[in-house]
């Protein structure tokens, strides 16, 4: 499509007229328009235009001087817009559609509400709640910038203060922080505007943003707190189970066992129900199975996903539980006025293929945005899965930033990667993509910030137990299924229509169900470890080998005797480049063993005894499927148990001890006792912690339970 012409505008305009000035509604959708095709001189002749449809084009920006001052309805769905500030030229706009623009974020959603004071609907939804968020954010940011100005001015002499006003703007943008990390783009944008206005006024306190009061809207009552319950899981049963309700009449303090005072103190911060079946606040039965922190890409973090397995169920609205240290009742942080950003059923950008539409037509993305908290400098965004939902949570504030629902699905595993996407205009964009999989054998690729599912892979005919990305190839994804196969996929890079063309690279056959996947840290492109129902196995995954279907090369055993092989391994992770932590092969212990020392003695053996470095004392429970994780940068091993506790091991001192190491299992560094959060006047006294994961700097720790509770701790 070339530049627009007056003839085309008259053909597509309503009412029909031979004069552009009489057109009130104009449909320019589906014309493959680029930004440069929107000629301001031509469009400014549409003096009476009130409704404009630019959907399904290839627009990256909107020209800043279109001259459509009377425009009330604008549709820009399914484009490539990356900025919304040009919308300020439409002060009368009341309805706006921006769905399917993958480069727009939550911050852009807030910018829209700030720039368009008369806006009533965004993407077909009421805009009043988002406007309320913006008003609260603006009020707090104005206060903080003003306080920063007073502090900044006090440190300077009157002569210096006059010359340093430009420095103040830079200082405010750098130092004034408020709200979760996901809103930092919006808050810094507003801080700059407020600072510049403050400087321009000569230091007089700036007025709050000129956002007109919206008509008051009835707010839904806060959801009641959920009734405590927990699930009992018989040994060797990976399926959904009936609830076994416990009631507690007395309170106990949340505390730490085994800490000598030199170890970091972890304090409970938030308890959330965000995976509830049918959004019921009384649901404490949905089992949660896997979580993964979004890597800080600039730090070059590993992309290996955390794994989870079972058959949970549910979909939820977030409830926040109370917890009581001693006699004080402390609520989760960040519980001020909140609004819901809800998108319609998940879109596939452009015209998606029939198969993909069929898989995603009933999926829903919801983002819940709170306006309190202060963003931290480290990775603090975690994805959790369980039941029908995948949630993305800001750990500092306890905000559920995004929520993805797939009715009929039961999610078991999530993993992050980052992809470089080239737009049609040749610009490169970096996407954080979350892969989620479960019962239906499908892998869903979620562009979380933009809020849509950008691809579905029919990976297996049976449920997917776990998945993880290669740490060295951002598009390579391993999926492990109940069909006793592990498949290595190349997702490829999405095309201009945001479609993935995934291809199979390898198929690895197993003799039992794979539960955990772990690329070997020192050679991730060569070997893959898997913890399975029948033991721990290893495959050669080099892509320069001719065989595309391979069997297990080596099975590792952890003790001598006839029963050494064939024991379940349900926990597996690297502590550093050489040391592996595994669980399940021996009751009540976690094994630390050396990959290099074990592998050097392989020869041509198909069964290989591991070289054990140490054993860690863990719960004596006979229950299975408690996943362990590691924090390699801190030398930490983490694992939950059947009582709701979190076992924390700092193994650096163990691994640096001279040989021989003590034969007896080493005690944990500390045990975080279950804090017993309150719900509907009672306490959730016990639960099973299925998965525990910390961010790379060990600042936040997230635990997922059998009772639909996401628990978050913070290091003090």
Radius of gyration: 28 Å
- Terminal residue distance: 58 Å
Give the name of the CATH architecture of the largest domain.
7 Propeller
What is the chains' assembly state?
Answer: single chain
Organism: Vulpes vulpes
WD repeats: 457-491
Protein name: Leucine-rich repeat and WD repeat-containing protein 1
Subcellular location: Chromosome, Centromere, Kinetochore; Chromosome, Telomere; Cytoplasm, Cytoskeleton, Microtubule organizing center, Centrosome; Nucleus
List keywords for this structure.
716 residues, alpha+beta, Leucine-rich repeat, LRR (right-handed beta-alpha superhelix), Methylamine Dehydrogenase, Chain H, six-stranded antiparallel sheet, 10 helices, 32% strand, telomere, WD repeat, cytoplasm, leucine-rich repeat, LRWD1
Gist?
Belongs to the LRWD1 family. This protein has 716 residues and is an alpha+beta fold. The chain has ten helices and 46 strands.
Describe the overall structure:
- Residues 239-264 have a biased composition (Polar residues).
- Residues 265-310, 370-714 form the Leucine-rich repeat and WD repeat-containing protein 1 WD domain.
- It comes from Vulpes vulpes.
- Residues 209-236 have a biased composition (Basic and acidic residues).
- With 716 residues, the protein is of the alpha+beta class.
- It folds into 3 domains: 6-123, Leucine-rich repeat, LRR (right-handed beta-alpha superhelix) (Alpha-Beta Horseshoe); 130-201, no CATH class; 267-295 and 364-715, YVTN repeat-like/Quinoprotein amine dehydrogenase (Methylamine Dehydrogenase, Chain H).
- A 7-stranded mixed β-sheet has the order 1-2-3-4-5-6-7. Strands 12-17-18-19-16-15 form a 6-stranded antiparallel β-sheet. A 5-stranded antiparallel β-sheet has the order 10-41-40-39-38.
- A hairpin with a 5-residue loop joins strand 39 and strand 40.
- Helix 3 (106-115) packs parallel to helix 7 (184-200) and helix 6 (165-175) runs antiparallel to helix 7 (184-200).
- The relative contact order is 0.10.
- Mean pLDDT is 78; it is low at 207-255, 298-317 and 324-377.
């Amino acid at each position: 499509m070339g530049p627009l012409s007056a003839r085309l505008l008259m053909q597509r305009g309503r009412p029909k007229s031979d004069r552009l000035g009489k057109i009130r509604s104009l449909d320019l959708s589906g014309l493959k328009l680029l930004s440069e095709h929107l000629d301001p001189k031509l469009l400014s002749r549409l003096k009476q235009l009130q409704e404009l449809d630019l959907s399904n084009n290839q627009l990256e920006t909107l020209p800043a001087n279109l001259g459509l001052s009377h425009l009330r309805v604008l549709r820009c769905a399914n484009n490539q817009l990356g900025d919304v500030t040009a919308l300020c030229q439409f002060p009368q706009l009341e309805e706006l559609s921006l769905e399917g623009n993958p480069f727009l974020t939550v911050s852009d959603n807030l910018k829209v509400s700030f720039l368009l004071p008369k806006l009533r609907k965004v993407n077909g939804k009421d805009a009043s709640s988002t406007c309320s968020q913006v008003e609260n954010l603006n009020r707090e940011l104005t206060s903080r910038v003003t306080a920063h100005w007073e502090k900044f001015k006090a440190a300077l002499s009157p002569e210096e203060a006059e010359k340093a006003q430009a420095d103040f703007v830079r200082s405010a943008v750098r130092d004034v922080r408020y709200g979760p990390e996901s809103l930092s783009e919006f808050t810094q944008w507003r801080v700059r505007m407020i600072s510049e206005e403050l400087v321009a006024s000569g230091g007089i306190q700036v007025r709050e943003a000129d956002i007109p009061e919206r008509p008051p809207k009835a707010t839904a009552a806060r959801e009641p707190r959920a009734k405590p319950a927990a699930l009992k899981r018989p040994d060797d049963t990976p399926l959904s189970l009936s609830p076994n309700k416990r009631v507690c009449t007395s309170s106990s303090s949340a505390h730490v066992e085994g800490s000598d005072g030199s170890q970091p103190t972890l304090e409970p911060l938030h308890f959330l129900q965000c995976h509830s079946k049918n959004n019921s606040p009384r649901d404490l039965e949905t089992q949660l199975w896997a979580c993964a922190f979004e890597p800080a890409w600039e730090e070059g973090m590993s992309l290996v996903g955390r794994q989870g397995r079972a058959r949970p169920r549910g979909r939820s609205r977030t409830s926040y539980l109370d917890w009581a240290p001693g006699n004080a009742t402390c609520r989760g942080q960040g519980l001020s006025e909140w609004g819901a950003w809800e998108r319609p059923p998940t879109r596939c950008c452009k015209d998606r293929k029939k198969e993909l539409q069929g898989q995603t037509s009933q999926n829903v993305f919801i983002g819940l945005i709170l306006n309190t908290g202060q963003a931290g400098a480290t990775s603090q965004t975690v994805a959790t899965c369980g039941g029908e939902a995948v949630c993305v949570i800001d750990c500092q504030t306890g905000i559920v930033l995004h929520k993805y629902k797939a009715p009929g699905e039961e999610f078991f595993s999530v993993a992050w990667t980052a992809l470089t996407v080239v737009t049609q205009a040749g610009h490169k964009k970096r996407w954080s993509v979350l892969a989620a999989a479960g019962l239906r054998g499908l892998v869903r690729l979620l562009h979380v910030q933009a809020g849509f599912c950008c691809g579905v892979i029919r990976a297996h005919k049976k449920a997917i137990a776990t998945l993880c990305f290669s740490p060295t190839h951002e598009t390579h994804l391993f999926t492990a299924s109940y069909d006793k196969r592990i498949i290595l996929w190349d997702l490829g890079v999405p095309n201009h229509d945001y479609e993935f063309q995934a291809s199979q690279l390898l198929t690895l056959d197993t003799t039992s169900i794979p539960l955990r996947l772990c690329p070997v840290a020192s050679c991730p492109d060569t070997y893959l470890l898997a913890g399975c129902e029948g033991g721990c196995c290893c495959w050669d995954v080099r892509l320069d080998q001719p065989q595309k279907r391979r069997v297990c090369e080596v099975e590792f055993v952890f003790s001598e005797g006839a029963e050494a092989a064939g024991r379940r391994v349900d926990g597996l992770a690297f502590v550093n480049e050489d040391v592996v932590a595994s669980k399940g092969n021996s009751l009540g212990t976690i094994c630390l063993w050396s990959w290099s020392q074990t592998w050097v003695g392989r020869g041509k053996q198909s069964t290989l005894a591991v070289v054990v470095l140490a054993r860690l004392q863990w719960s004596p429970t006979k229950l299975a499927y408690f996943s362990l994780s590691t924090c390699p940068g801190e030398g930490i091993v983490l694992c939950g148990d059947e009582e709701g506790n979190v076992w924390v091991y700092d193994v650096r001192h163990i691994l640096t001890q001279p040989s021989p190491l003590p034969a007896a299992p080493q005690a944990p560094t500390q045990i975080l006792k279950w804090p017993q959060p309150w719900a509907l006047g009672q306490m959730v006294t016990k639960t099973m912690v299925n998965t525990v994961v910390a961010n790379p700097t060990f600042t936040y720790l997230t635990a997922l339970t059998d009772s639909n509770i996401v628990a978050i701790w913070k290091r003090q």
